[in-house]
Amino acid sequence: MIKLQLKNHKVWQDFTEIVENLDAKILVNEHLELCDYQLCGYWDEQDKYYETINLPRNLEAELISSSIGVTNQERFLQLKFNLKFSVVETNFAVETTYQKVGELILVYNENLEFIDERWFLDSDYLQHL
Amino acid sequence: MGDLPNNWTDIQADIVYISANGLLVSFSSEQIKLGIKYDLNSKHLKAIHKGQVSARGNVGLVASQEEGFDLKSKVLGKGGDKRFHAKFIDGVLHFPGWVTEH
């Protein structure tokens, strides 16, 4: 059996290079535009079903992790984002705070074509809809 | 040909059902077992009833990227970590029991 020297393996260098050259922000913004900031069908943690959820247009996505997956049929790239939007408070001084919406995972194939998505919306956010 | 039930436990293997949007569907016994195991509240059946939808932001049936498969059921939110893949055989969308995580 060949023992892999994983820590120093070239795979890390290659993956870092892929992620550095990838504009995750463009991908997630394209996704939000294409679904028109709307989810048609969503189950929350309490198994409550939402027919339509309209997301705020000023939604901001921040990449929190990226990974490559390998099956016996394909290789794929998975990007995980934090979703939040800004709330401007004008009580005393103009101040911008952020409200967290949830998380979104996007899955792409080797040609960077969209394959799938997974949404996790925070219950705090859903309560205010 | 009966209406597609709303619960996995009411489905019989290899019987052709008609979904709410008029699609003909059938399931292998393996698929029914997977449905009972992973889809306790039959959310994927709701997605199948809904029929084909565009790939982004929707619960329903979307294109499968798996070789030899046409469509997969997609759930968003809780239960959205599994996809059930299906292929058209003589006009019937058959779910043989292939489950993936995207």
UniProtKB/TrEMBL annotation, chain A:
Q: Which domain of life is it from?
A: Bacteria
The protein here is known as: Uncharacterized protein
TrEMBL record, chain B:
- Domain of life, per lineage: Bacteria
Would you tell me the protein name for this molecule? Uncharacterized protein
Q: Which organism is it from?
A: Okeanomitos corallinicola TIOX110
